[in-house]
């Protein structure tokens, strides 16, 4: 077996990425995913990224694409698997869900906040399959619930109604565990951000 028989092509990395997450054509369409070569990734980000990637566009509450995108690096060097344009700030990820325009003002629709776009997609998919009237959004990391605007919450989160009078929306925070012990408690950073 030669070296070329043991290597995987960049396009095969993308195919493997989709297969590992059990994404079918409908998932790819809903997520708006696209394969980017190493040079396309570098051009998009504005700095050298020595890996092909998966384009991950963001959508607003009406399901329209925004100008914010992130990429999932297919061949990461080190711990960093995701990247975005420098100084592009944090954005809230709203998975494609026709319920969003109603959910943002209807306190009877529970909100799930998770960490990571693909988790939000998986939760939204499960919600739809179960016929539940929940919505799910994602933040890119546990501290991405705010931005540089000095608002108490990210402006996109501020556009969602949480309470009115005596009524309040049920909100569930489902961050990654990231704990070291078997006690089910998250690590200190995750716990602090959940509390905030």
Question: Could you characterize what this model shows?
Answer:
With 196 residues, this protein is an alpha+beta fold. The chain is built from 8 helices and 10 strands. A 4-stranded antiparallel β-sheet has the order 1-2-3-4. A 4-stranded mixed β-sheet has the order 5-7-6-10, with helices on one face. The protein has a two-stranded antiparallel sheet with strand order 8-9. The protein is globular. The termini are far apart. 21% of the residues are buried. The model is unreliable at 1-5 (pLDDT under 50).
What's the short version?
This protein is 31% helix and 21% strand.
List the helices and strands and how they pair.
Elements: H1 3-6, H2 10-20, H3 25-31, E1 34-36, H4 38-45, E2 53-59, E3 65-73, E4 82-84, E5 92-93, H5 100-103, E6 111-115, H6 117-130, E7 135-139, H7 155-158, E8 163-164, E9 167-168, E10 171-174, H8 188-195
Parallel strand pairs: 6-7, 6-10
Antiparallel strand pairs: 1-2, 2-3, 3-4, 5-7, 8-9
